[in-house]
Structure formats: structure tokens, C-alpha cells
Design goal:
Blueprint (H helix, E strand, L loop, with lengths): L5 H9 L1 H4 L9 E2 L10 E2 L3 E7 L5 E7 L4 H14 L10 E9 L6 E8 L4 E2 H11 L2 H20 L12 E3 L5 E3 L40 H16 L2 H8 L10 H5 L5 H6 L5 H13 L10 H9 L93 H29 L1
Antiparallel strand pairs: 1-3, 2-3, 3-4, 4-6, 5-6, 7-8, 8-9
Helix pairs in contact: 4-7, 5-6, 6-10
């Protein structure tokens, strides 16, 4: 069976009294364009129309551009899971498997009815705040983002495509997420992700074979948080890295991560007046080199910076990252750091202090060692895995030279006996 074209869906929606199966929706109206046709906001997999109920309530009508049984099952599972759960950042929606009727053959097609999100994208909101020089508003936005990420984690929801176009700022100042094509809920974990997300917000280890898992949003949520904090500390970064070059994403580019030595943004963020921005920038670039499944949650990263030093411990020589070394000011004494306070995979390499990585190790890029950035605190989550463990018991002080002397004496006696025997055999012959 051929799937309807966008023009076919527009014809169904032009006459709601016939197109909708639901009796209440038959009384609604749909926004029209200048040609008198339903106005579509088209995406890759779906088109969205703006609907109005008789009481003036706005809602979104989402129809699928092509048949994808897996995607339909995906939305059915999400709808079932979110029913009865109040998540402030996720708009309410209802999946109807047979909600739209074709006037031509009477066949029924699926649709999504969603709450209409008024407001602007976080990209346009940031542009406005940075142009007006409102760092306080941007900092408040960073706090709201942190609460949003925590809320998703508490409810076991993965958005899957966190990026500037999918985050809306409502007129009341709330953050709302849209586009749930990549979303994961407990019933969907372990299934293949239907999309790979938008660079550079996504980790380079994500691809078409990546499955939905609880930590899929960890990298992108950290990147957006770092960008918000950086703009709050220095709003002029927007003019330099977004407005002036005409860039359509928030600060970061793929090449910033691929060649940080040549990245002016990386260098500027390491000079940020906000010390935590410097620390978070270092950790963001370090984590991008780690395995996708080993990226810690945003809360874990932040808890590492906020942790207070515990018992005194000697800093191992391999503590600092060879790829992105943390700095130490002249005359600075090492700060005692206790055991790790959170489970993180952003670990530093052990062994010799060298920019070379072990043969056969897996990395996502071949980033060379970077020059020493400005001073920041060490992050407990970046310690080697065994740092803080009790040292292995030793035989005792000053015992090694005794065994060396005894061994040397025994070897000398044996060599003397062997030489004498060889000499006697030679003379006898």
C-alpha cells in the first residue's frame, strides 16, 4: 500500500470534519498558508500542522511523511510510558494509530496530537540575551538546563537529540523539549536508535548501530551546559563565534574537538573569567575521547568539581592528562585529593608522562598534546582508577642490597669453579 504524500495529508486536514476520526477534533480548525492550504512545517520524517480547538486551545498535529513501522511502535511505547507522568520539560502528546482518514479510499493513518509550544528556540533566545548583554539571564538558563537534565534522568527518559533546535524557551521562561523521534523510555532501551542526532552536540562514537541506553544524553547535555555557562561568563563569545561567522549552532564546532590546538574557542574558554567554565571545558574535551557508554552524567561531573578534599594523599606522577593537561601555577603545591566521589569514566592515562597513547588503544581522534592552559583545580573524577588505594606491602627498608650482595658472591664462586674445571680439562687433553 502506497503511503500518502504530504499533499494528501494536507487534503485530509483541509476539511477536519471529514479528515479526523475523533468527534472533538472534527470541530477544530487548521492554520492555512497564503494559498489556502494547511500550513506544514516539514521535517525529515514528519510534518507538523497548527490546530485550534473551538475553545481556542492550540495544539500540534504531526503526521508521518512515510511509513515506518518501527517509528510508529516507538511512539506508541513512549505514549504509553508518559501517560500519567508529569515531566515539565516534555509536552503532552497522544498517539492515535488510526486518527486520520483519507477522503479518497477511507483508509486510516496514524498521527500525533501534541501540546503546541509557544516561544522561541534556545538558539534565538541566547542570541537575544547576549546581544542585550544579559549574563544573569543566561546563567539562570544554565540552571534551568541542569534541572531539566536531572528531571529526565529521574524519570528514566532519554531524549536522544538534545540540540538548539529541539529546546524551546516558553514565554514564561520554561524550557520545553520537542521532537521525540530519538526518545528512549525503559521499554525501548536496547533497541537501535532511529536517528544519530545533530553534530557537534552528539558524541563521535554514536552511529546508526548505537542502541538506546540511559546515558545516551550525557555528552550532549554537558556540551550545552558548558556553552550556557561560558556565554553567561562572557556574552561576547556569541558575537565572535556565532553571529559574526553566521554559524547556526551554539558555540562549538566539530573542528574545535578534532584540532583543539588550532581552536580559538577552546583557548578562549580556558581563559574564561568563570573558573568552573575552565574546568568543564577541560572535562568536555577529555570526555569526547572516551567511549560513548562511559560518559558520566552531568551531575556526576559537577559533583567532582564541588567535592571537598578528603584525606591527604600523594599525587601520582601520571595524574595529569597527557592529551589535555590541567595546569599548575608557579609555586602551587598539590592539593590532597581523596577517593573518587562519583563513578566516572573520564580517567587519566597511567604510566609515563607522554603524549603518546598505548599501541592498540581505541580513541575517537588523534588529538595531540595541548599546551598548558590556565590554572584550574584538579577534578576527582579524572583520577586513575586505583588512585587512593592502599600501597602494596613491601619487604622492608634497606633489605634489597643484602640479597644483591649474597647473590653476587654465590655467582662469583660458581664462575670460579667452572673456570678451574675447564682449565684442568684443557691441560689433560
Amino acid at each position: 500500500m502506497a503511503w500518502p504524500l504530504q499533499s494528501d495529508f494536507a487534503s485530509m486536514l483541509k476539511n477536519p470534519s471529514v479528515g479526523f476520526r475523533d468527534a472533538e477534533l472534527r470541530r477544530c480548525t487548521v492554520e492555512m498558508n497564503q494559498l489556502g492550504q494547511p500550513k506544514a512545517r516539514s521535517g525529515n520524517f514528519a510534518s507538523v500542522y497548527h490546530g485550534f480547538r473551538p475553545d481556542g486551545t492550540e495544539f500540534a498535529i504531526r503526521v508521518f511523511n512515510r511509513r515506518q513501522d518501527e517509528r510508529l511502535q516507538h511512539y506508541r511505547a513512549i505514549s504509553d510510558y508518559l501517560r500519567g507522568r508529569a515531566i515539565s520539560s516534555i509536552v503532552r502528546f497522544q498517539y492515535d494509530e488510526q486518527g486520520l482518514r483519507s477522503a479518497g479510499d477511507g483508509r486510516l493513518y496514524p498521527l500525533l496530537l501534541m501540546e503546541w509550544v509557544s516561544g522561541t528556540t534556545i538558539f534565538d533566545w541566547l542570541r537575544k540575551q547576549c546581544k542585550k548583554g544579559q549574563p544573569g539571564a543566561v546563567l539562570a538558563g544554565a540552571d534551568m538546563w541542569l534541572r531539566l537534565v536531572r528531571e529526565l534522568s529521574e524519570h528514566g527518559v532519554v531524549h536522544g537529540d538534545l540540540q538548539h533546535g529541539n529546546v524551546m524557551v516558553s514565554p514564561s521562561g520554561q524550557l520545553k523539549l520537542v521532537d521525540y523521534d530519538c526518545m528512549g523510555v525503559p521499554a525501548l532501551l536496547g533497541r537501535r536508535n532511529l536517528e544519530t542526532g545533530l553534530p557537534p552536540y552528539q558524541h563521535p562514537g554514536r552511529n546508526g548501530d548505537t542502541v538506546l541506553f540511559p546515558g545516551l544524553d550525557n555528552f550532549s547535555s554537558l556540551l550545552i551546559y558548558v556553552a550556557l555557562r561560558a556565554l553567561a561568563a562572557a556574552p561576547k563569545l556569541w558575537q565572535t563565534y556565532v553571529a559574526q561567522p553566521g554559524y547556526d549552532r551554539i558555540l562549538f564546532r566539530e573542528e574545535d574537538f578534532c584540532t583543539p590546538l588550532n581552536s580559538p574557542l577552546y583557548q578562549d574558554l580556558l581563559k574564561s573569567p568563570d573558573g568552573q567554565v575552565r574546568e568543564l571545558t577541560h572535562c568536555l574535551f577529555e570526555l569526547r575521547r572516551q567511549d560513548l557508554r562511559k560518559i558520566p552524567r552531568l551531575d556526576e561531573v559537577l559533583s567532582g568539581f564541588q567535592a571537598k578534599p578528603a584525606s591527604a594523599a600523594r599525587r601520582p606522577p601520571s595524574f595529569r592528562s597527557t592529551a589535555f593537561p590541567l595546569p599548575r601555577s608557579p609555586g602551587e603545591t598539590p592539593t590532597p585529593v581523596g577517593p573518587r566521589v562519583a563513578r566516572s569514566r573520564c580517567r587519566r592515562p597511567t604510566g609515563k608522562r607522554t603524549a603518546e597513547r598505548p599501541v592498540g588503544s581505541k580513541t575517537h581522534d588523534s588529538t595531540p598534546a595541548l599546551p598548558t592552559p590556565p590554572a584550574t583545580r584538579e577534578h576527582p573524577l579524572l583520577m586513575p582508577p586505583n588512585f587512593g588505594a592502599s600501597p602494596r606491602p613491601q619487604a622492608g627498608p634497606n633489605r634489597g642490597w643484602v640479597w644483591w650482595f649474597v647473590g653476587s658472591a654465590v655467582m662469583s664462586v660458581l664462575l670460579g669453579i667452572a673456570a678451574t674445571l675447564l682449565l684442568l680439562i684443557w691441560r689433560a687433553s
